Amino acid sequence: MTRRTAASRVLDVLGAFGPDHRALSLSEIARRAELSLSTTHRLVGELLSWGGLERGADGRFSVGLRLLELSALAPRGLGLREVAFPHLDDLHRATGGNVHLGVRDGHEVVYVEALRSRGTAQVSSRVGDRWPLHATGTGLVLLAHADPGDVDDVLARPLARYTARTSTDPEALRRHLARVRRDGVAVLRGQITDDAMAVAVPVRDRTGEVTAALSLVVRDDEAGPGGLPALLTAVAARIRRSLTAGPTAMGAGAAVRPVERALRVG
């Protein structure tokens, strides 16, 4: 068995936490990190002193604010989220749908922002959630713009199925990816949740590279996406301009409102 370095053991402790494991006891951390209780106790103590972990009144541990400060420095993390948020908020208000901003991390999409709806399709989405690339709107957009070798790697792996409509056939997915590249939009129905439709578009940085994906998830009423692709494309363009100009760029409302009016009369 390969001997783990001190740094790798610290990363194992932090890796014990996740969307479904936000607060853990010492023994739970040790079990999930596959470390002895004494080693876990020492590493957790060091992370507490540094601010990487926090201890609650119940004695359980959670991720500390020091890590939040560091993540804010990541160009694809909170920095992107901060610039994009006004535009995402306008999209959320205009549609009432579930809004997601995701970036690719290996074979998964990670949500750096998620605004949940109270009235339309109820989907499980929180900041930090990870989903497979093949079954989500944001993931499919990011995969469509990935290197061919990365696409081959993803499609060669077992593809999880969440509903009877989840697409898990590699060749069908390749055809879908080609359509996404051609049309600039992904439309998925019932892939993760039976009654949900996801519409997603790429978000490009100042150089034109796809740095993130924006999606809107609404209830699937069988009527099709209508004006939603144009709406999301307008918001994605506004985010790109804000990434170029910085957070003081003009608000997203000007981009949303013309398409919102079209939706009302369409």
UniProtKB/TrEMBL annotation:
Pfam families: HTH_IclR, IclR_C. Signal peptide: none annotated. Residues 66-245 form the IclR-ED domain. The keyword DNA-binding applies. It comes from the Bacteria. InterPro entries: GAF-like_dom_sf, HTH_MetabolicPath_Reg, Tscrpt_reg_IclR_C, Tscrpt_reg_IclR_N, WH-like_DNA-bd_sf, WH_DNA-bd_sf. Gene3D superfamilies: 3.30.450.40, Winged helix-like DNA-binding domain superfamily/Winged helix DNA-binding domain. Residues 4-65 form the HTH iclR-type domain. This is IclR family transcriptional regulator. It comes from Actinomycetospora aurantiaca.
